[in-house]
Amino acid sequence: MQIKKGIAVSPGVAISQALVLDAEDQPVPRRTVSASHVSIEKKRLEAALAESGKEIESLRQQAQTQLGPELAKIFGVHLGMLQDPALREEFNQLISRDRVTAEYAVFAVMRDLAHRFENLQARHFRERAADIWDLERRVVGHLIGKTRKGLADLTDETVLIAHDLTPSQTATLDKNKVVALATDKGGLTSHTAIMAHAMGIPAIVGLEDITSLINTGDTVIIDGDRGLVIIDPDAAQLMEYRQNVERSAELATSRDEMARLPAVTTDGTPISLMGNIEFPSEIEAAIKKGAVGIGLYRTEFLFLASETEPSEDEQCAAYREAIHALKGLPLTIRTLDLGADKLTDDQHQDDSLERNPFLGCRSIRLCLQNLPLFKTQFRAILRASVDGPVRIMFPMISNIMELRQAKMILNDVMEDLEDEGIPYRQDIPVGIMIEVPSAALQAKALARECQFFSIGTNDLIQYTVAVDRGNERIASLYSAAHPAVIYLIKEVIRAANRARIDVSLCGEMAGEPEFVMLLLGLGLRNLSVTPPALPEVKRIIRSLGINQCQRVARKACGLDTDREVTNYLRDEVRKIVPDALGGRSTEQ
Ligand code: PEP
Ligand code: MG
Questions:
Q1: The pTM is what?
Q2: Ligand 1 center to residue 403 CA distance, Å?
């Protein structure tokens, strides 16, 4: 048994067999297997070598006819290496001696060989190193490719273990089969973490080397409440966690009953609790959990989940589906927030990659530089807007000119629709996300030019504290309780209230039990949260008085460190709802 701690990003407990997904562009992790598994690894190796051989032979023939004998020789060299009995013997020996996986054996032997060639003086030899790496990728690709293909048609419940997952990989996971996630990389509000939370499955990220500690088929426990991965648990641990799973199922049912009750404080102040979604198909579940609308629809996931850019009609159909699923409840559609960690396949292949993508051409900046893309989305939203109460929200506004430009383009599109006689809602409310410190500091001016704000703390934290939200190495610095972040939130709410425009908060912070008192105390009356967190947030709201919240917010605003703020808020919420924080403790 081995226990590993990471960053808990989605609560709950799952016990199941692991499926380890190796990343094609990463070094292969060193994983060992049991003695009885050694022969299986050798068979896997044989099969991968045979498949690679067939592939290279067909490439050689193709090159021979299309490119000529000189270039075909390269594949002849690859075939020669692949069939070299000494090399095969080295792979097999490593598997037998060190009981490592076939993919690791190939990787390790080929890496050593490539390094030897790289260190030779003659250019000819150094170039051979590239051939060795090429061959290594091919054979390893056959070995790990099987797992990747298997991901699409899983038959059993699985805990997915990966180096990292892109948001589009997470978006296309079979939610009925993947019962939990654990990754080497990632931070609290990385988009993979957000997706896992939305899927309602336990997830732990930032585990650093979990892919090298677990083999496909191992039994693992994922404790998403405490951020623990337990590998090969003993009988006592299994029993304890199985009871835990049963208890949490009972608790979940009682929390779901909350959905039917209004979100109102003990003194009668109503709070509007909405849901965040990535796909219209999530709306039904969000309403079941008690959402009274969707405060954030991340439309970029439509692009991430599809291989080609969705057309105007396809986008319009998705927005209509969302509107109809809401049956008259409000929907805030956020325009494309692509870029940074949310890249489409085309963007992934683009070799002009930015050095600092979170500070680069993402989100509204990308839309303003791609007007056809932006206009198509506007047309789709406006056409759908006649079907129900829709608002448009621009992400990542960092100055007023961006807002003005975006509104101008929206007006152009409205005029086009008018000319074409296509109906749309002329007074569609337009708002912005406040998620860049410059926008927070300029909230007063921005409030004069739009109809609502939604505070995006996931990004606001990373830009205020200069901490990449997806980087596990500095995850402890990423904190919603940082006094500078709280100061900015307070000022944004104040600016919105003075301008009499609507303000809500849609970052993950809104779904964290310890922050509910602070946010209500700072004056927020609208929160948009990941749907699985709705019942718990509502349970806390229904136990609080606004006066209490204001007192807590005043005190929290006077504290100097995020740790003091976190500890104070945890203590306060526990006084009112003792089991609000599950396994989380006060930080030392
Ligand atoms: C945010 O930044 O807080 C937010 C809600 O948007 P996203 O997580 O999609 O960047
Ligand atoms: Mg954001």
A1: 0.78
A2: 18
